[in-house]
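Example with several molecule types.
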Amino acid sequence: MASDALVTRGLTRRYGGRVAIDSLDLQVKEGDVYGFLGPNGAGKTTAIRCMLGLIRRDGGEVEIFGERDPVRQRASVGAMVETPAFHTWLSARDNLRRACAFAGVGDESDIQQALDRVGLQGRAEEKVSGYSLGMRQRLGIARALVGRPRLLILDEPTNGLDPRGMREVRDLLLDLRRRDGLTILVSSHLLSEVEQLCSRVGILERGRMVAEGSVDELLDRAQTSVVEVDVETHDTAGLARALASIPGASPAGEGEGERLRLRLNGIGPAELNRALVNAGVPVEALIPVTHSLEELFLRLTTRELT
Amino acid sequence: MTAAHLLGILRVEARTIYGRGSARLALVVALLTGVGALLAHQWIQGQAASIEANGAPVTQMIEFSGPAVAGWALRVRNFFVLPLVLLLATAASFAGEIGDQSLREALVRPVPRFVVLFSKAVVLGSLAALTLLASLIPSLGGGIALFGNEGSTTVPAVLLGFAASLLSDLGLIGLGLLASTFVRSVGGVVVSLILLLMADTGLRAMLKGMAWLGADWAEAVGRALPGNALACWEGWTGAWDPWAFGGMAVLLVSSYGLTAWRFQRMDVP
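Resulting structure tokens for the full complex:
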């Protein structure tokens, strides 16, 4: 069984009377690619800053690979928080040398390897002031990689990248996990990407964890809590009349042509089909709706907001 | 934390701070004061030998010797521009890095915050020392070569003046670092410290006036102000002020101590 790479217990941060992080319990297992999700202002970046010791915490504790000392635990972490900032009058290589020196480990070969990984090997001697936003983002990831980390914490790593760049970063992270065995915590707004990339996900809302688990677990949860089906019939008027007499089935939208989405509570798709046929509705197709992580995310976070 | 780790940090911090325009400007200005003082003395000696004042040649009113040229270079170096540029370099390396968030990179690494602060203070101190050498070497060396070493100004006295100037610079850097934990912008640090030192100068002048009118306590209070400590180098001409050095000790301990204390507790964006 994989051991814990990162654990927070009761992590709390307040700004005046406002609670930005509210007793956050989070668990990232070694080898995980953990997606840290939440709408803007949910507290993802604040939580990451607390984990890295950039800002004070008002309560709780952070443990990284079993280490509780805030300085020593950072020896196994490479991080990129929000938009990466650099000493722009230095070259990309010199910026990585700085990171290496502060990490206390690594050498020129580590720097070269990190540059190769993000595809900046040909531009390493250029000053960062001439770099585009996308190149800076890649360099930020390269900087997180130097110092031989076991855990990568990346806050919105695809910010500013074009679709091709986003895909390259996604492939890079998967490669880092597969080839180097790195554990990765990645915060993102791009839910479909998180769905493809992450093995486990935590959804943060107003500083609180509202859902945590593997992507499959969360999707199962989405499927079992409420079931939706699309019903196709040329007798939409008959369908609407029949629904009034079928308890547990109600329209979930306006409908499109001969298709209507129904929400089911306490009734399964088979029972619905039987009831519709008994009511004389010619059902041409009955298609269970598959929920994406995005729909779950929106449902969880919208519920919190309303 | 090993010695090799610390040395590595000092090396990259030096590369970063010396790579800034403000550090290069400080070195150029310092070199110009040294070379400028030498050339000015040479020009005065050559051009003004025939000019008389009160029946005596002007050149007799000016001392021409290596230590005297270095003394002039020191006065010019410490007059406003170079302390301002040093302050700018200090603010850029700390408040500037907090403001543009580049300091974050150092803080997410396994390094205690006081080590990050220490490395900046050491490199900025080395910059101050290098600017002093950049003034001293051409002025003293060139001055001795051109004018000799004879005169009322001695080499040890002027060297003590340069050494005391390093203390002043360290005090100024300490104030700049401390201000950076409050203001977090380069311009804000520079402007707030200029205003503080102007207020200090005004207050000391007022206290001096009160002392002249008979308030004995006023002189003692004036000597305890930070501006008097920062002017400790002025005693190199023969009248060292122990109050200024006592004040400098307090200024150094309190500014660096308070900076470390505040930095340890502050949120870094």
